[in-house]
Amino acid sequence: MNASTSGxxxxxxxxxxxxxxxxxxxxxxxxxxxRDAPEKRAIxxxxxxxxxxxxxVHLLWxxxxxxxxxxxxxxxxLLGGAFTVAVAVATLRAPEYRRLYALGAGTLAAFLxxxxxxHGAATAGALGSDPLAIVAVGAEIVGVAAFVALYRLAxxxxxVLERRTEGEKP
Length: 170
Fold this sequence. Notes:
Elements: H1 2-5, H2 27-32, H3 38-62, H4 73-93, H5 98-119, H6 123-129, H7 131-153, H8 157-168
Helix pairs in contact: 3-4, 3-7, 4-5, 5-7
């Protein structure tokens, strides 16, 4: 009865029960997987590598074309590449925030949809004739899938913030 009234907290770290309350409850962290669970860590690395590869390809494409003032794409690609790298770094260093993962998926999806929007009906032909585009589109598809998987595996942001404040208490 105590376990059901205390929110399911059934044991303490020493193995003894004290009114159903634990000195340190980690049951919610192990049931949904911590940030460093092996599957989350692997998916996070895939997402980060796909984001960095996408940024690198866009920077490689944009750098030699910066002197052309009539085309805005190189400048957009520089900004987008820098932003993508920032999202990748935050994905590695920050706690698991669903909003961050949604931002990563959205950024890579924007690159992907922008390519299709720019080339329109000739997308398949343009993609087949440009090796950088093939690499970028492949990395973007993998990155979107990885960021969506991270989003689905991550707890809601309120839970992450609650865990963070619990860790700050003396």
